[in-house]
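REQUEST ID: PR-0412
SUBMITTED BY: lab tech R.K.
PRIORITY: routine
TASK: structure prediction, single protein chain
INPUT:
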Amino acid sequence: MMSRLLSVALLALAASSAIADDKPVPPNPEAVAAIKALGGNVLTIAQNDARLDVTLHLASADVTDEALAHVAKLDQVVWLNLAGTKITDAGLAQLANLKSLEKLHLERTAIGDAGMAHLKGLENLAYLNLYGTKVTDAGLAELNGLKNLRRVYVWQSGVTDAGMDALRKAIPEVGVVGALDLKPVEPPMEKPAEEKKEEKKADPKPDAKKDDAKPADEKKPDAKEKKK
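STATUS: complete
OUTPUT:
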Protein backbone atom coordinates (compact mmCIF):
# COMPACT_ATOMS: atom_id res chain seq x y z
CA MET A 1 0.00 0.00 0.00
CA MET A 2 2.78 2.39 0.97
CA SER A 3 4.69 1.59 -2.20
CA ARG A 4 1.61 2.36 -4.29
CA LEU A 5 1.12 5.71 -2.56
CA LEU A 6 4.79 6.50 -3.09
CA SER A 7 4.46 5.72 -6.81
CA VAL A 8 1.42 7.97 -7.13
CA ALA A 9 3.25 10.77 -5.34
CA LEU A 10 6.26 10.43 -7.63
CA LEU A 11 4.03 10.50 -10.71
CA ALA A 12 2.29 13.65 -9.47
CA LEU A 13 5.63 15.29 -8.82
CA ALA A 14 6.85 14.40 -12.31
CA ALA A 15 3.66 15.77 -13.87
CA SER A 16 3.94 19.04 -11.97
CA SER A 17 7.57 19.36 -13.05
CA ALA A 18 6.58 18.82 -16.69
CA ILE A 19 3.91 21.50 -16.42
CA ALA A 20 6.42 23.88 -14.90
CA ASP A 21 8.85 23.17 -17.75
CA ASP A 22 6.15 24.06 -20.29
CA LYS A 23 5.74 27.57 -18.93
CA PRO A 24 7.19 30.25 -21.23
CA VAL A 25 10.67 31.34 -20.26
CA PRO A 26 10.68 35.10 -19.66
CA PRO A 27 12.98 37.15 -21.90
CA ASN A 28 16.23 38.63 -20.66
CA PRO A 29 15.03 41.54 -18.49
CA GLU A 30 18.18 43.61 -19.00
CA ALA A 31 17.92 43.35 -22.79
CA VAL A 32 14.23 44.27 -22.70
CA ALA A 33 14.94 47.29 -20.49
CA ALA A 34 17.74 48.48 -22.80
CA ILE A 35 15.52 48.24 -25.89
CA LYS A 36 12.68 50.10 -24.18
CA ALA A 37 15.12 52.79 -23.03
CA LEU A 38 15.79 53.53 -26.71
CA GLY A 39 12.08 53.93 -27.36
CA GLY A 40 11.64 50.45 -28.78
CA ASN A 41 9.23 47.77 -27.65
CA VAL A 42 9.27 44.08 -26.81
CA LEU A 43 6.01 42.12 -26.81
CA THR A 44 5.03 38.46 -26.83
CA ILE A 45 3.15 37.55 -29.99
CA ALA A 46 0.39 35.79 -28.03
CA GLN A 47 -0.69 34.88 -24.52
CA ASN A 48 1.29 31.97 -23.05
CA ASP A 49 3.71 32.22 -25.97
CA ALA A 50 7.32 33.14 -25.25
CA ARG A 51 8.05 34.22 -28.82
CA LEU A 52 8.76 37.92 -29.18
CA ASP A 53 7.96 40.82 -31.49
CA VAL A 54 10.70 43.46 -31.20
CA THR A 55 10.18 46.88 -32.79
CA LEU A 56 12.78 49.64 -33.02
CA HIS A 57 11.57 51.52 -36.09
CA LEU A 58 9.67 54.06 -33.98
CA ALA A 59 12.39 54.54 -31.38
CA SER A 60 12.85 58.04 -30.01
CA ALA A 61 16.65 57.72 -29.99
CA ASP A 62 19.03 56.81 -32.81
CA VAL A 63 19.13 53.03 -33.16
CA THR A 64 22.63 51.83 -34.06
CA ASP A 65 24.53 48.54 -33.97
CA GLU A 66 24.72 48.87 -30.19
CA ALA A 67 20.98 48.20 -30.00
CA LEU A 68 21.43 44.97 -31.94
CA ALA A 69 23.64 43.66 -29.17
CA HIS A 70 20.61 43.80 -26.85
CA VAL A 71 18.35 42.16 -29.44
CA ALA A 72 20.86 39.32 -29.81
CA LYS A 73 20.28 38.39 -26.15
CA LEU A 74 16.62 37.58 -26.87
CA ASP A 75 16.59 34.07 -28.31
CA GLN A 76 12.80 34.09 -28.64
CA VAL A 77 12.61 36.88 -31.25
CA VAL A 78 10.52 35.88 -34.28
CA TRP A 79 9.58 39.34 -35.62
CA LEU A 80 12.09 42.19 -35.75
CA ASN A 81 11.49 45.66 -37.19
CA LEU A 82 14.61 47.78 -37.80
CA ALA A 83 13.17 49.96 -40.57
CA GLY A 84 14.71 53.42 -40.87
CA THR A 85 17.37 52.79 -38.23
CA LYS A 86 21.11 53.52 -38.49
CA ILE A 87 22.34 49.95 -38.30
CA THR A 88 25.20 48.77 -40.53
CA ASP A 89 26.22 45.61 -42.34
CA ALA A 90 28.64 44.79 -39.54
CA GLY A 91 25.89 45.11 -36.96
CA LEU A 92 23.78 42.44 -38.62
CA ALA A 93 26.39 39.88 -37.62
CA GLN A 94 24.88 40.05 -34.13
CA LEU A 95 21.61 38.63 -35.47
CA ALA A 96 23.20 35.54 -36.98
CA ASN A 97 22.24 33.37 -33.99
CA LEU A 98 18.56 34.34 -33.92
CA LYS A 99 17.53 31.03 -35.46
CA SER A 100 13.85 31.55 -34.65
CA LEU A 101 13.62 34.79 -36.63
CA GLU A 102 10.80 34.66 -39.20
CA LYS A 103 10.16 38.29 -40.18
CA LEU A 104 12.80 41.01 -40.61
CA HIS A 105 12.26 44.64 -41.64
CA LEU A 106 15.39 46.39 -42.96
CA GLU A 107 13.73 48.90 -45.29
CA ARG A 108 15.19 52.40 -45.56
CA THR A 109 18.50 51.43 -43.94
CA ALA A 110 22.08 51.54 -45.30
CA ILE A 111 22.31 47.75 -45.39
CA GLY A 112 24.11 46.33 -48.43
CA ASP A 113 25.45 43.05 -49.79
CA ALA A 114 27.86 42.47 -46.89
CA GLY A 115 24.95 42.49 -44.48
CA MET A 116 23.09 39.81 -46.42
CA ALA A 117 25.91 37.36 -45.75
CA HIS A 118 25.01 37.47 -42.03
CA LEU A 119 21.42 36.41 -42.75
CA LYS A 120 22.05 33.26 -44.76
CA GLY A 121 21.96 31.09 -41.63
CA LEU A 122 18.48 32.24 -40.54
CA GLU A 123 16.76 29.09 -41.77
CA ASN A 124 13.29 30.05 -40.49
CA LEU A 125 13.22 33.48 -42.14
CA ALA A 126 10.03 33.82 -44.18
CA TYR A 127 9.73 37.59 -44.73
CA LEU A 128 12.44 40.14 -45.56
CA ASN A 129 11.94 43.79 -46.51
CA LEU A 130 14.90 45.37 -48.33
CA TYR A 131 13.05 48.35 -49.80
CA GLY A 132 15.32 51.38 -50.19
CA THR A 133 18.51 49.54 -49.19
CA LYS A 134 21.85 49.20 -51.03
CA VAL A 135 21.46 45.48 -51.64
CA THR A 136 22.27 44.30 -55.19
CA ASP A 137 21.90 41.01 -57.05
CA ALA A 138 25.05 39.68 -55.36
CA GLY A 139 23.62 40.28 -51.89
CA LEU A 140 20.26 38.77 -52.80
CA ALA A 141 22.04 35.61 -53.91
CA GLU A 142 23.19 35.11 -50.30
CA LEU A 143 19.59 34.15 -49.50
CA ASN A 144 19.39 31.27 -51.96
CA GLY A 145 19.65 28.67 -49.20
CA LEU A 146 16.75 30.03 -47.13
CA LYS A 147 14.12 27.56 -48.30
CA ASN A 148 11.41 28.91 -45.96
CA LEU A 149 11.63 32.38 -47.48
CA ARG A 150 8.26 33.37 -48.93
CA ARG A 151 8.29 37.16 -49.39
CA VAL A 152 11.10 39.59 -50.24
CA TYR A 153 10.69 43.29 -51.06
CA VAL A 154 13.47 44.89 -53.12
CA TRP A 155 11.82 48.02 -54.50
CA GLN A 156 14.21 50.98 -54.90
CA SER A 157 17.25 48.84 -54.06
CA GLY A 158 20.13 47.80 -56.31
CA VAL A 159 18.45 44.51 -57.24
CA THR A 160 17.64 43.99 -60.93
CA ASP A 161 15.08 41.80 -62.67
CA ALA A 162 17.83 39.25 -63.28
CA GLY A 163 18.59 39.08 -59.56
CA MET A 164 14.92 38.60 -58.69
CA ASP A 165 14.58 35.82 -61.26
CA ALA A 166 17.67 34.10 -59.86
CA LEU A 167 16.19 34.04 -56.34
CA ARG A 168 12.86 32.74 -57.67
CA LYS A 169 14.74 29.95 -59.41
CA ALA A 170 16.61 29.04 -56.22
CA ILE A 171 13.44 29.20 -54.09
CA PRO A 172 10.39 28.49 -56.30
CA GLU A 173 7.94 29.32 -53.49
CA VAL A 174 9.30 32.82 -52.86
CA GLY A 175 7.55 35.99 -54.01
CA VAL A 176 9.98 38.77 -54.90
CA VAL A 177 8.43 42.23 -55.19
CA GLY A 178 10.26 44.91 -57.14
CA ALA A 179 8.92 48.18 -58.54
CA LEU A 180 5.20 48.72 -58.21
CA ASP A 181 3.37 47.79 -61.39
CA LEU A 182 1.01 50.72 -61.92
CA LYS A 183 -1.15 50.24 -65.00
CA PRO A 184 -2.18 53.44 -66.83
CA VAL A 185 -5.87 54.26 -66.91
CA GLU A 186 -7.16 54.28 -70.48
CA PRO A 187 -9.39 57.22 -71.53
CA PRO A 188 -12.96 56.39 -72.60
CA MET A 189 -13.29 55.47 -76.28
CA GLU A 190 -14.93 57.99 -78.61
CA LYS A 191 -18.09 56.97 -80.44
CA PRO A 192 -17.62 56.03 -84.11
CA ALA A 193 -18.55 58.66 -86.72
CA GLU A 194 -21.47 56.53 -87.95
CA GLU A 195 -23.08 56.57 -84.49
CA LYS A 196 -22.74 60.35 -84.33
CA LYS A 197 -24.54 60.67 -87.72
CA GLU A 198 -27.37 58.47 -86.50
CA GLU A 199 -27.76 60.69 -83.45
CA LYS A 200 -28.15 63.74 -85.70
CA LYS A 201 -30.79 61.96 -87.80
CA ALA A 202 -32.75 61.26 -84.66
CA ASP A 203 -33.68 64.97 -84.29
CA PRO A 204 -37.43 65.46 -83.49
CA LYS A 205 -39.64 65.81 -86.61
CA PRO A 206 -41.73 68.99 -87.00
CA ASP A 207 -45.35 68.69 -85.98
CA ALA A 208 -47.27 67.44 -89.02
CA LYS A 209 -50.48 69.12 -87.88
CA LYS A 210 -48.83 72.53 -87.87
CA ASP A 211 -47.50 72.04 -91.41
CA ASP A 212 -50.91 71.01 -92.68
CA ALA A 213 -52.68 73.95 -91.11
CA LYS A 214 -53.85 76.61 -93.61
CA PRO A 215 -55.03 80.16 -93.12
CA ALA A 216 -58.76 80.43 -92.48
CA ASP A 217 -59.31 83.04 -95.22
CA GLU A 218 -57.64 80.95 -97.91
CA LYS A 219 -60.29 79.89 -100.49
CA LYS A 220 -60.31 76.77 -102.56
CA PRO A 221 -60.02 77.41 -106.30
CA ASP A 222 -63.35 77.61 -108.13
CA ALA A 223 -64.15 74.63 -110.33
CA LYS A 224 -64.82 76.95 -113.26
CA GLU A 225 -61.42 78.52 -112.91
CA LYS A 226 -59.87 75.06 -113.09
CA LYS A 227 -61.66 74.43 -116.44
CA LYS A 228 -60.25 77.66 -117.81
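NOTES: The first strand starts at residue 41 and ends at 46.
REVIEWED BY: pending
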